[in-house]
Design goal:
The complex is a heterodimer of chains A (192) and B (197).
Chain A: H1 8-14, H2 18-41, H3 51-73, H4 75-81, H5 92-102, H6 107-137, E1 139-141, E2 151-153, H7 155-159, H8 163-166, H9 168-191
Antiparallel strand pairs in A: 1-2
Chain B: H1 3-13, H2 24-29, H3 34-63, H4 72-94, H5 96-102, H6 106-109, H7 113-124, H8 129-157, H9 169-183, H10 189-193
Helix pairs in contact in B: 1-8, 3-4, 3-7, 3-8, 4-5, 4-7, 7-8, 8-9
The chains are: A mainly alpha (192), B mainly alpha (197).
Chain lengths: 192, 197
């Protein structure tokens, strides 16, 4: 994700809390996995001239399913993700993988590709959310389970929050620094 | 909400790029020089305005009567994709000069989250058709504003000595972050203070 800079809108929009990042990643994993399976299974049936509209229909139906499932089982995440959830449809990663990989490879390879891509997406998204939530409000929000309320307070950060990190500018600043860090890391490996 | 309030909201307070992060891909991708930025901004404004009205009409005249609201995402993306295609053909026929200026940006707009985003927000804020039209226009104008600002910053950044790994994309993100910081000065109190609600 940091290398490709694809699918950015949801990344910056939902990364205010770790739980939202995980919910979003789950949505992307589901949609990407099934869109890759369906498209690679149908790759010989779909005529080349209308392949993009066909992919969009497949992806949009899967996103609608995801929306309905999330609305039913995790309403809090559903309302937190808001407009970003239907926007998975226009996430460049999904259409990009359908076009670049699933339309040319077998179903099994496409499944592996989808899992790899979404794990990368989930890691990047959770990393940004972790940094933003830690510095912005000093908490880490997970899902409530049993007598665990779902919110971990980090002692020092909780008393000294840097509010701007949780707001819009923080997302862009952190994205810039992380991108610089990963670029530096890549170029350092190349030099060796 | 009055129309001026909607305009101010989507141009400044909830600027799609800098506050909501919708439409970031072209923002980072196409903002390398100001000519392209203006072209992209103009095309997006055109499409968001038309798409707002068309998706609004489809939602209320087609989906609601048949209780098909859950098909919203699916219908909207198809409508936007065909709308962009249609606009491309119409502009090419009517005004070849405009087509030359905007042509290359039009296909990119289908996958721009700003267009689908405003279509969905129009419905979820239950705007009427006129408000949806104004919101679509305002989103486009806000997008254009951010694009022009960003492209000017990046044209200057090209001439500055930026250190190693920060060159290019990272420094663009950081400048955008600082710009978003400036945009935080606009908030909802602006509308209340101007007595627009």
């Amino acid at each position: 994700m940091f290398v490709l800079v694809l699918g950015l809108c949801p990344v910056l929009g939902v990364s205010t809390q770790v739980s939202n990042a995980i919910g979003m990643s789950a949505g992307v994993l589901f949609v990407l996995l099934f869109s890759n399976i369906i498209i690679s299974a149908l790759r010989k049936v779909i005529p080349a001239s209308i392949h993009i509209p066909a992919y969009i229909v497949v992806i949009a139906s899967l996103v609608t399913i995801t929306e309905m499932v999330m609305h039913a089982f995790v309403p809090s995440v559903y309302s937190a993700l808001g407009v970003y959830l239907p926007l998975i449809v226009v996430n460049c990663i999904i259409l990009g993988r359908a076009e670049a990989f699933a339309s040319k490879n077998s179903v099994f390879d496409s499944i592996l590709d989808a899992i790899g891509m979404s794990v990368g997406f989930a890691l990047g998204l959770t990393l940004i959310a972790l940094i933003r939530e830690l510095f912005g409000s000093g908490t880490i929000t997970l899902f409530p389970m049993g007598n665990f309320g779902g919110v971990i307070n980090i002692p020092w950060f909780y008393d000294n929050p840097i509010r701007v990190m949780a707001l819009a500018p923080g997302a862009l600043l952190i994205m810039g620094y992380l991108k610089a860090f990963f670029d530096w890391n890549t170029s350092r490996k190349k030099d060796k | 909400m009055s129309y001026i309030a909607i305009l101010l909201t989507f141009i400044f307070i909830n600027n799609f790029i800098l506050v909501q992060f919708l439409g970031l891909c072209p923002f980072i991708g196409v903002s390398k020089n100001s000519e392209n930025a203006i072209g992209m901004g103009a095309s997006v404004t055109f499409v968001t305005t038309v798409a707002s009205v068309v998706t609004w009409a489809i939602y209320y005249f087609l989906l609601v009567p048949f209780n098909l609201q859950y098909l919203q995402t699916l219908t909207f993306i198809l409508v936007i994709a065909s709308l962009v295609q249609l606009l491309e053909m119409v502009i090419q026929k009517i005004s070849p000069a405009l087509y030359k200026a905007l042509g290359i940006y039009l296909p990119l707009i289908t996958t721009n989250c700003a267009v689908l985003g405003i279509a969905i927000i129009n419905i979820s804020s239950s705007y009427n058709v006129m408000e949806a039209f104004v919101a679509g226009l305002a989103v486009g104008l806000g997008f254009t504003l951010a694009m022009i600002l960003m492209s000017n910053i990046r044209e200057r950044l090209d001439l500055q000595p930026v250190r190693g790994s920060f060159r290019g994309m990272p420094i663009a993100f950081i400048s955008a972050g600082l710009m978003a910081l400036a945009f935080m000065a606009f908030d909802k109190s602006l509308i209340t203070n101007l007595h627009l609600v």
